[in-house]
User: Fold Membrane protein insertion efficiency factor from Lactobacillus psittaci DSM 15354.
Amino acid sequence: MITSLQKHGLIKGGIMGIARILRCNPFVHGGVDPVPDKFTVKRNPHPERYMDEIIVKKFHSK
Assistant:
């Protein structure tokens, strides 16, 4: 949620962060779900296929 607030501001980031927290339950397939650059409350497509190394390089190189 902190990352969504930093990227998208208080209102959009808050909405996005709450939607992401609500997805954290046993009925939603888990996986890596980085905060996208564009605002959306939907999950990233096929996050379970991401490789951890790619995520770390792409989202932590800034």
